[in-house]
Amino acid sequence: MSILVDKDTRVAVQGITGRQGSFHTRLMLEEGTNIVAGVVPGKGGQIFEGIPVYDTILEARLKQDINASIGFIPPPFAAQSILDAIDAGLEVVVSITDGIPIHDMLKVKDELKDKRTYLIGPNTPGLITPRQAKLGIMPSKAFKPGCIGVISRSGSLSYEVCDELSKANLGQSTVVGVGGDSIPGTTFADLIPLFEADSETKGIAIVGEIGGVAEEKAAKIIKEFCSKPVVALMGGESAPPGKAMGHAGAIVTRGKGTFKSKVEAFRDAGVRVVHKPKDLVQALNSLLSAHR
Amino acid sequence: MSILVDKDTRVAVQGITGRQGSFHTRLMLEEGTNIVAGVVPGKGGQIFEGIPVYDTILEARLKQDINASIGFIPPPFAAQSILDAIDAGLEVVVSITDGIPIHDMLKVKDELKDKRTYLIGPNTPGLITPRQAKLGIMPSKAFKPGCIGVISRSGSLSYEVCDELSKANLGQSTVVGVGGDSIPGTTFADLIPLFEADSETKGIAIVGEIGGVAEEKAAKIIKEFCSKPVVALMGGESAPPGKAMGHAGAIVTRGKGTFKSKVEAFRDAGVRVVHKPKDLVQALNSLLSAHR
Amino acid sequence: MNLYEYQAKEIFAKYDIPTPRGKVVDGRSDLQKAFEIIGKDKFGMVKSQVLTGGRGKAGGIKAVDTLDQGLDAMQGLIGMKIKGFPVERVLVEERLKIKNEYFISITLDPEESLPVLLISPKGGMDIEEVAGEYPEAIGEYVIKLQADLPSFAMIELVKNLGFQRQLWGDLINITSKLYRAFCEKEATLIEINPLIETVDGKLIAADGRLNVDDNALFRQPDVSEYKQEFKDMVLKGKGVDYVDLDSGEVGVLCVGAGMTMLTMDLVAHLGSKARCFLDMSHGVNPAGFKAALDLLASEPDIKYVLVNMFGGLTRMDEIAKSILEAIDKFDGKFTKPMVLRLQGTNADKGQEIMREAGYQVCSELEDLLDRFKEMLREEK
Amino acid sequence: MNLYEYQAKEIFAKYDIPTPRGKVVDGRSDLQKAFEIIGKDKFGMVKSQVLTGGRGKAGGIKAVDTLDQGLDAMQGLIGMKIKGFPVERVLVEERLKIKNEYFISITLDPEESLPVLLISPKGGMDIEEVAGEYPEAIGEYVIKLQADLPSFAMIELVKNLGFQRQLWGDLINITSKLYRAFCEKEATLIEINPLIETVDGKLIAADGRLNVDDNALFRQPDVSEYKQEFKDMVLKGKGVDYVDLDSGEVGVLCVGAGMTMLTMDLVAHLGSKARCFLDMSHGVNPAGFKAALDLLASEPDIKYVLVNMFGGLTRMDEIAKSILEAIDKFDGKFTKPMVLRLQGTNADKGQEIMREAGYQVCSELEDLLDRFKEMLREEK
After folding, report:
1. How many domains does chain D have?
2. Does B86 sit within 8 Å of D152, measured CB to CB?
3. Fewer CB within 10 Å of terminal CB in chain B, N or C?
C-alpha cells in the first residue's frame, strides 16, 4: 500500500520532450514509474523512450487509461497545463514548476473545488512511493520503501529527512512534497487522512516551516482523526518575523503562521516537534516502539 | 403579520416613469405601499409623485434604506435590472416582465444562489399584503386583509380565487404570484415555510397547474413542515399531455409534472385538491373550523 | 420557435457538427442540384420537413436510388399531411452506411434551472421509449452554467454508457459543439437523434432538432431569418397564444394560461370539450380579437364560443370595446353562439358596454357555466 | 515587486482612484514643477520614497509652506537612510484638509486561496495595531473570485463599520476600482492608508501601496517599467534569493528555503547568528556563486561562511565546479573561513572535486555542525 501513487498508477508526462522533462522521465522510469503517455503540443504522434506522445492531455486521456500526470512546464503555461489535467479528470496532478503567477493559481484552486483531483505542488519536487512510482525530481538514492509517510513543504529538507529515514531502515510509504508556494494545491491537512487510512504507513513525518497556516490546519486534523504517531521537523525558529523567506509560502501574514503558533498547535495535537532530521528519526523510532 | 412585504417595506419602483410603471405606481400608492424611490436610468434627480428618482437601483439603495423593488422593464433589459436589484441586496425583488429570455433567467437563478433575495416572478402579477403593500399589478378590489396565504402560478386565476376568499370574509394574509415562466425565482416550496411561520396565516391556498414540478416540491415541503390546512386549486386536467399551454411553465417535460402526479403528491401530503374557486373557499372554511 | 430539420442542420453546420451532404428541395430543379451535391453513388434519402415526430412511421421518409425515384418521392411527399402538418419541402440527403445509432440532447431542466445533457447509445428511436425500457442506457449530466463542458465528466459519461473508446473523442467533441450552439442560440432544446456511426467509424448527425427560446429571437438574427416560415406565428405576432386541441366543439377565449386551463377543465366536467383555446394575454386589442374570431369562425368543428375573463392588468371595458369592434368587422357574419363573462378591473363598465350592444354577460363563473349548460341543451 | 508610493499612485490614477496633486522629485527643477502643479495655497507635503513602513515616525515626511522650505526638506530627506533604506527621491504633494482617515486593503488570504478585502474607519495608523486594539473596527470580506465586488456585501460592510451614509457610494466605488487594479495588475497587496476624507467630504488616497507578484511581471508591462529601479533585483536576476538579516556573523549558503531556515536555526542553536542567507535554488552556476561570494566578501560583519547543500535537482558536482570557478575569480582574495557540506545527487563527485582543490567537505549534517563549532572556537 501507499497513498496517491503506486506501481499501477498510469502516468502522463506533460512536457516529456523538454530538457527537464526528458531528463527526469528517464529517472522516473528507472524508479519503476508506469509512464504510459507523454504530452507535448505539436509533437503528437512521436514516440519518446517507447512512450507515445500526444498533443493534449485530453487526447492522451481519451486514448489511454491514464490517471496521473506530472508537468515540466514553463511558468507562463503551467497553470493552463494543470487546468487541462484537472479537466481531463486525472486523480493526481503534479506540477514541478516554480514561479507560477499567484493569480493563475487562484483560478486553479477555484477549479479544484469539488473535483477529485489531488494537485501536488506547484513548486514541489513531487511525490514518490519508493521503487513503485516517482512523479518528481527527487534523488532516488535518498528513498527506500518503508513505513513512514512523509509530507514536506521544503524539497531539500525532505531529501535530508528521507535519507535519514532510509539509513535508519524505517523507509517511506509515500513522500509528498506539497510545494513552497503560498497557494499550494494539496495541503498537509488533505494528506493526513490518506496516511491514516493507509495500512502500510505506521508513522507520519511532517517537515514544516514558518508562514501560512498549513501546519496549524494539519494539527487540527491530526488531533481529530489521526491515531498514528506524528513527528514534525520545524524550521524558521530564528527567522525574523515579517522577512520574506525566499519561499512565498514563508511570508508571515497577519500574525498567523509563526514558529510559535505552529509548534503550539502541533504539541496540542500530540505531535512531537524536533529541530534536526536525526532527531526526527529518533523520535519516530521511539514512538513506533511505544505504539506497537 | 404577513410574509415578505408589509406597510414597513421600503419599495423602489424600477421603471417608475414608464407607461406601465407610472400607472401602477399610482395604484400601488393607493393600496398604501411605502414607495420611497424610483429608478430610471438617465432620469436621476427627477421627482415622480413626490418620490425621488435615481439612475440606478444601487444609487437608490445607497441613498435610502430600500429593501424591496418592483420592476416594469422591457424584456431585453429585465434580467439586468433584476441582477442589479439582487446586487443591491434587496430582500424582495418583483419582476412583472413577461418574455424574459430563458438563458437570461439561468444567469439570474445562478446569481440568486446563496443570496437572501426573494425574486418574485418574472411574468407575475406580483405580490400583495392587502391594504399594506402591493408590489404588483393585481386589481386591488379582489383583495381584502385576512387569514389565507395564497400562492399561484396563474395571475388571472389568483384574482378569481382571492375575490372568492374576500367575499367569504376569509381574506388574504399575503398573496404571491410566483409567475408563469418555466424558470421562476421564488417557488411554491420556498414560500410554504414563510406562511407556516406567519402567525396571521391560518390556512394556505395554492393555485397550481400542470407542467414543471413546483407542485410536487411544494407537496413534499408541506408534508414535512406544514401544520396549517392547505387547499389546492388545480388546472389542466383536460389539457392534452405534451401540448404547450401558453405558459412556458406549463410544458410537460419528461413525463413529470402531469395533472395526475401533482394531485397525487398533494393528496399524499394531506392537501385537499379542488377544481373551482368556490370549492376552494368551501374546503378552506371547513378545514379551518375543524382546525380550530 | 421550433426549427425544421434542415434549418437545425444549417445551424449545426455553423458549429462544425458533421451532417449528411444534401439540400432542402421544393421543386424539380432543386432536386437536380441535390443529386449533383450528393453524387450518384450515395443518392439518396428524401425526408419530408414537418415540425412533428414520427414522420418515418407515417411514410414521410423515402429511400431512393435514382433521380427519377427521387422525383417521385418528392412529388409524393410534398403536399402530404403528417399529423395534420402539411409537407411543403423535403430534405434530400446522402444515404449513410449505418453501423450504430446514438442519441444526444441538451434541454433545460426546470427543476434545477440548468441545462441538462442526455446521451444514449440507443438512438434512432423515441427517447421516451428508451427511458421506459432501458433507463440505464441514458446518461444524464446537469450542466452547471460552465463556459465549456468539463471533459472528465464527459469521459465518465460515455465510458459508463459503454461507448467504445475510439468514439469518445468525436462524441465529446460533438457534444461540446452542441452545448456551445445551445448557449449561443439560446435554445430550449437541441438534439441529434439519431447520431449515426457509419461503417467507417464516422459520427454524423442524421437528424437534428433545435428549439429556440421565442423570447430571445430579438437577438438571434440567424434563427430569426427562419421566422417568416411559420404560419402559426401570425396569431402570436398579435399577442394571442393559440393552441389547437385536435378535437372538440368549444372555442375558449380567456386571459391567462391558468384561467384557460381551468375553463377547459370545467367545460370537460360539463360533458363538452374544447376544440382550441386562445389566450388573449397580450392581444387585448381589436386586431387581436379580430384574428381570434377569424380563427373561431373558420373552423367548422367549433360550435360554441366561451369567453371567460377576469382582468387584473387588462381592463374589461377595453376588452368589451375590442370584442365589439372585432365582431363589427364581420358585418353580422359571426354567428356562432357565444357565452361571456367579464370580471375584475372595470368589469362593470365592460359588462355595460356589452349589454348595450345586445349581448348577455355574466359576472360570476357559476353563472357562466349555467349559461353554457343551457346553451348546450338548446343547441342539441 | 513592491512599488514605491509614487508608483502605486501612478497606477491608482490609471484606475481613477483619486490621489493628491503632486509630483515625484529628485532635484531642484523638479521641485519647482511640483510647486506649480500644486499651487501656492496647498503647498505642500514632502514625503521620502522608501520601501518600508513607519517613515513618518522616522522623520521622513515634512510639511512645508514655501518653495524654499520645500527645497530644504527635499535636500534634508534625499540621501537620508530610513530603516537602512536610502532615500533617493521624494514625493511632493498638496496638503489635504483632513476630516477623517480610513483604511482599505486587498491582499491574498492563503488559507482561503482567495483575495480578501479589509476596510476600516480607523486609518492612518498601523493596521496591526488597530487589529489589536479595535478588532471590531476592521471589516473583512473574502472575495470569491467574482468579476466585480457585490454591492450588497460592500453596503453591509461599510454600514456595519459605522461609515456615514454619504460616504458609502464613494467608498464602494474606490474599493471596487482597487479590486479591479488588484486583479488586473496581479497584486499580492494593494492598500490605501490613509484614505483621507477631506473637510469638504471628498475621499483621497493620501498614501498607497502596491505589491505585484514577481512571477507575473512578464505580462505586466506597466509595472515592469518600474523594475530597473530596484537594486536588490540584481541577485534575483542571477537566480539567488538573498535575505539580509540585519545582524549576525555567518553567511549561510543553501539550496532551498526549508534547508536555509533549518540551517539558520542550527547556527543559532550553536550560539552564533546568521547575518544573511543566500538561497541558490536557481543560481547554481558560476555567475550565481560569484555574485553570492561578492556579497559575502563585501560585508565586513560576515566572519564565517557556511555552505549546506542537499541536492535533488541540483547536482553536487556542478555546484562544486561553480563554487571553485567563482572563488578562482577572486585571485586568492576570498579568505573568509568556510565550512562546506555537499550531499545528495552526485555528492561523491562533488566532494571529490572540492577535496582535490584543497577544501574539506562533509557529507553529514552533524559533521558540518561539528566542523562549524570547531571553526567558531578557533577564531575566538
Report:
1. 3
2. yes
3. C
Q: Where do the H-state alpha helices sit in chain D?
A: 5-14, 28-38, 67-77, 127-133, 151-160, 165-184, 221-224, 233-237, 257-269, 286-298, 316-328, 347-356, 365-379
* Last residue of one domain, picked from the residues D160, D194, D224: D224
For chain A, list the contacting chains (3+ Cβ pairs, <8 Å).
Answer: C, D
Half-sphere exposure of D52 toward its Cβ, with a 13 Å CA cutoff? 15
Query: Quick check: C260 contacting B, CB < 8 Å?
Result: yes
Same-domain pairing of C373 and C246: yes
Q: ∠A124-A125-A130 over CA atoms, to 5°?
A: 135
Q: Which residues contact A154 (CB under 8 A, 6 or more apart)?
A: A177, A180, A207, A209, A235, A247, D256, D257, D258, D259, D261
Residue D326 located in a structural domain: yes
Confirm whether D230 is domain-assigned: no
Residues C56 and C26 in one domain: yes
Distance CA D361, CA D351 (A): 6
% of chain C beyond a pLDDT of 70:
97
Instruction: Flag whether B touches A (3+ CB pairs, 8 A cutoff).
Output: no
What would the pLDDT profile of B242-254 be if each residue is shown by its tens digit?
Answer: 544 333 223 335 5
Chains that touch B (3 or more CB pairs under 8 A): C, D
Selecting from A61, A86, A115 the residue whose C-beta is nearest the C-beta of C155 gives: A61
Same domain assignment for residues D206 and D307: no
Tell me whether residues A278 and D365 touch, CB distance under 8 A: yes
Q: Which of residues 104-133 of C touch B (CB under 8 A)?
A: 107-108, 110-111, 113-115, 128, 131
Residues C66 and C170 both lie in one domain:
no
Task: Decide which of D71, D94, D117 is a domain's last residue.
Answer: D94
What pLDDT shows up at residue A251?
31
Express each pLDDT in D294-332 by its tens digit.
888 888 889 999 999 987 767 889 899 999 998 888 887
Q: Are residues C143 and C46 in the same domain?
A: no
* Whether residue B247 lies in the annotated active site: yes
* Distance from C-alpha of B73 to C-alpha of B82, rounded to nearest angstrom: 10
Please tell me the CATH superfamily of domain B138-292, with its number: Succinyl-CoA synthetase domains (3.40.50.261)
Judged by DSSP in three states, C140 sits in strand
Verify that C106 and C211 share a domain, yes or no: yes
If we measure between CA atoms, which residue out of B191, B32, B34, B184 comes closest to residue B97? B184
Q: Which residues belong to CATH 3.40.50.261 in chain A? A: 138-292
Decide: pTM greater than 0.90.
no
In our burial notation (b when 16+ CB lie closer than 10 A, e otherwise), range C202-240 reads ebbbbbbbbbbbbbbbeebeebeebeeeeeeeebbebbb
Domain span at residue C141 reads 98-224
Between residues 139 and 168 of chain A, which touch chain D (CB distance below 8 Å)?
Answer: 139, 141-142, 152-160, 163
CATH fold of the domain at A1-123: Rossmann fold (3.40.50)
Taking the CB of residue C129, how many other CB atoms lie within 10 A of it?
10
The radius of gyration computed from the CA coordinates of chain C, to the nearest angstrom, equals: 25
Looking at the fold, whether D111 and D195 belong to one and the same domain comes out as: yes
pLDDT digits (tens, 9 = 90+) for B72-125: 999 999 999 999 999 999 999 999 999 999 999 999 999 999 888 999 999 999
Q: Are residues C285 and C360 in the same domain?
A: yes
Does residue C7 lie within any of the structural domains? no
> Is D271 in CB contact (< 8 Å) with chain A?
no
For CATH 3.40.50.720, the residue range(s) in chain A are 1-123
Higher pLDDT, C131 or C64: C64
Q: Residue C220: which CATH number?
A: 3.30.470.20
Cell numbers for B3? 410574509
pLDDT band at B255 (very low <50, low <70, confident <90, very high): low
Task: Kindly report, residue by residue over D3-23, the tens digit of the pLDDT.
Answer: 999 999 999 999 999 999 999
D116 or A192, greater pLDDT: A192
